[in-house]
């Protein structure tokens, strides 16, 4: 029985062993299969990651290629002469190579489409000579130096136009002045162009022989599909000449219905060779070359010594409006800029208050300020950008072109302040040691805000109400060049001025970007987007304006004291600084 029991135990053990071996073999096969499966999955995952990496690299390369293509295309799109990328031959680590495209330009395709960089149009006019034989003249090329012209001692045959009453009513005008041979030519006055389909006004005219001899007229017209016009030249011997005008829309128009513009009137005839036309004393712009002129502009810059332009500084300020009457700000602006080295100021008056009007008359009498009237009959901000400011800036550019080499394009709350030098003449002399002066068409300065909501400097409590001494806290971060930056134009080298940068130079010129440790724009204003959130921005204390404290206080108080007995100053204006 004992032997039988041992055998049964051995049998049971054998069966159990076989059972566990079968289980082991089964799970070994399963584990092997799982290992193979895991290995295959890992391999497949790695393959997918590799493919994704290849795709990522491909998309990055495509993006970079597209971006570079857009960048290069828009550089040439903006700068017809491919001059925007230049910089001086004296390259240093302080100054970088540059272009004249705003930093936001690549992000605004709609703006690119609306700029209308070259809006010279092909125009054709059929006229009858005195003999009655019809002749046809037209412009073959878009360049302003290749315009056809028609010379005549008599008026050409009138083209079809609207009746006077219908034309005036269609443009919302009530009356118009007609100009003839005996009429006195005007300057710095807005006058309409007769018989146009849309509002069309002209303000001033300049002789410009830098890119080709033309009469350059500053005006305002419809941004797209503007009316074609003709230029009627008036000479001292009572003879006249009618030529075809070419319209060029000034680029910074914010996609509004109307824009500032140039009208290029040629001084060359391309008939039987190249024949020069003598510059006229005055010019009229007409949509109907056989009708009566409703404007007659005196041509400026005819008799100027262009080789003797003085290395002096002037300021251009866009039109004053909304009955501007901040007396303290105006006096501080003029006196501080004079300390910095500015000799003359040109301002445009849409509407100013009685106090500022009296202050400006004082400076006009001293020969420091020129005030030009500005009554443009186009709705500001709804139809045209801020009183047509780009017409004012370009009028000021050409008006001062051969009087002052350097012109600051700034607002009343802005100051271009040297930080490595004391005055603007010293600053430009220093910059010319770093760059080739012959290639510089403009000098750009980065913007930094001194927000008025920040507390006053504790040392300014006993000082006169001068914002440049009261506000010494500024935003730490500077805006890049061409974003809120301002510039000094080298006037003989600039063709088209903008608000924050130059749009077009003569060939071979460009912008010099100044590092902020050398100089930058001090901008004193409230938060740019409304409210008071701007005060949360990182800030630093900048007391650099205290270098001019004694001179500024003396000039400000003496001027205010001198004018207080004759000008209608409010008591608050004499003592307080207002944010308005």
Automatic annotation (TrEMBL):
<dbReference type="GO" id="GO:0005737">
    <property type="term" value="C:cytoplasm"/>
</dbReference>
<keyword id="KW-0328">Glycosyltransferase</keyword>
<feature type="transmembrane region" description="Helical">
    <location>
        <begin position="55"/>
        <end position="78"/>
    </location>
</feature>
<comment type="similarity">
    <text>Belongs to the glycosyltransferase 92 family.</text>
</comment>
<dbReference type="Pfam" id="PF01697">
    <property type="entry name" value="Glyco_transf_92"/>
</dbReference>
<protein>
    <recommendedName>
        <fullName>Glycosyltransferase family 92 protein</fullName>
        <ecNumber>2.4.1.-</ecNumber>
    </recommendedName>
</protein>
<keyword id="KW-1133">Transmembrane helix</keyword>
<keyword id="KW-0812">Transmembrane</keyword>
<dbReference type="GO" id="GO:0016020">
    <property type="term" value="C:membrane"/>
</dbReference>
<keyword id="KW-0472">Membrane</keyword>
<dbReference type="InterPro" id="IPR008166">
    <property type="entry name" value="Glyco_transf_92"/>
</dbReference>
<keyword id="KW-0808">Transferase</keyword>
<dbReference type="GO" id="GO:0016757">
    <property type="term" value="F:glycosyltransferase activity"/>
</dbReference>
């Amino acid at each position: 029985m004992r032997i039988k029991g041992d055998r049964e135990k051995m049998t049971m053990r054998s069966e159990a062993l076989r059972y566990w071996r079968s289980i082991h073999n089964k799970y070994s096969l399963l584990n092997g299969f799982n290992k193979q499966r895991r290995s295959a999955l890992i391999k497949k995952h790695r393959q997918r990651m590799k493919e994704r990496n290849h795709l990522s690299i491909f998309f990055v390369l495509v993006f970079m290629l597209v971006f570079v293509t857009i960048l290069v295309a828009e550089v040439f799109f903006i700068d017809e002469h491919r001059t925007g990328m230049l910089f001086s031959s004296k390259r240093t680590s302080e100054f970088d190579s540059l272009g004249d495209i705003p930093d936001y330009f690549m992000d605004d395709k709609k703006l690119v489409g609306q700029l209308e960089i070259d809006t010279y149009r092909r125009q054709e006019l059929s006229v009858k000579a005195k003999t009655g034989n019809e002749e046809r003249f037209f412009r073959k090329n878009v360049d302003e130096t290749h315009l056809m012209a028609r010379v005549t001692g008599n008026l050409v045959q009138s083209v079809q136009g609207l009746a006077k009453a219908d034309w005036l009513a269609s443009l919302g005008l009530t009356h118009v002045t007609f100009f003839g041979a005996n009429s006195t030519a005007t300057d710095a006055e807005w006058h309409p162009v007769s018989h146009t389909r849309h509002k069309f006004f002209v303000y001033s005219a300049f002789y410009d022989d830098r890119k080709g001899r033309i009469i350059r007229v500053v005006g305002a017209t419809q941004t797209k599909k503007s009316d074609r016009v003709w230029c009627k030249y008036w000479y001292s011997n009572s003879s006249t000449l009618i030529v075809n005008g070419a319209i060029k829309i000034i680029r910074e128009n914010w996609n509004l219905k109307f824009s500032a513009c140039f009208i290029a009137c040629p001084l060359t005839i391309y008939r039987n060779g190249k024949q020069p036309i003598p510059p006229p004393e005055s010019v009229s712009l007409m949509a109907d070359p056989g009708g009566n002129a409703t404007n007659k502009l005196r041509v400026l810059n005819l008799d100027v010594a262009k080789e003797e332009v003085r290395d002096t500084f002037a300021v251009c300020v866009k039109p004053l409006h909304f009955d501007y009457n901040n007396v303290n700000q105006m006096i501080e602006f003029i006196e501080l800029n004079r300390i910095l080295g500015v000799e003359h100021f040109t301002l445009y008056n849409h509407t100013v208050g009685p106090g500022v009007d009296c202050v400006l008359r004082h400076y006009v009498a001293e020969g420091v300020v020129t005030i030009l009237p500005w009554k443009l009959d186009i709705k500001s901000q709804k139809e045209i950008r801020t009183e047509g400011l780009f017409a004012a800036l370009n009028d000021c550019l050409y008006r001062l072109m051969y009087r002052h080499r350097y012109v600051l394009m700034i607002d009343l709350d802005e100051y271009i302040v040297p930080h490595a030098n004391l005055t603007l003449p010293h600053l430009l002399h220093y910059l010319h040691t770093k760059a080739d002066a012959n290639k510089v068409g403009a000098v750009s300065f980065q913007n930094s805000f001194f927000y008025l909501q920040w507390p006053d400097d504790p040392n300014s409590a006993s000082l006169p109400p001068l914002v440049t001494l009261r506000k010494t806290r500024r935003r730490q971060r500077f805006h890049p060049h061409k974003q809120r930056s301002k510039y000094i134009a080298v006037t003989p080298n600039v063709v088209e001025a903008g608000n924050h940068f130059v749009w077009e130079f003569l060939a071979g010129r460009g912008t010099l970007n100044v590092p902020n440790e050398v100089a930058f724009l001090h901008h004193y204003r409230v938060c740019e987007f409304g409210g008071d959130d701007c005060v949360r921005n990182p800030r630093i204390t900048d007391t650099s304006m205290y270098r001019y404290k004694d001179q500024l206080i003396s000039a400000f108080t003496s001027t205010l004291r001198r004018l207080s007995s004759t000008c209608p100053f409010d008591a608050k204006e004499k003592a307080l600084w207002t944010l308005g």
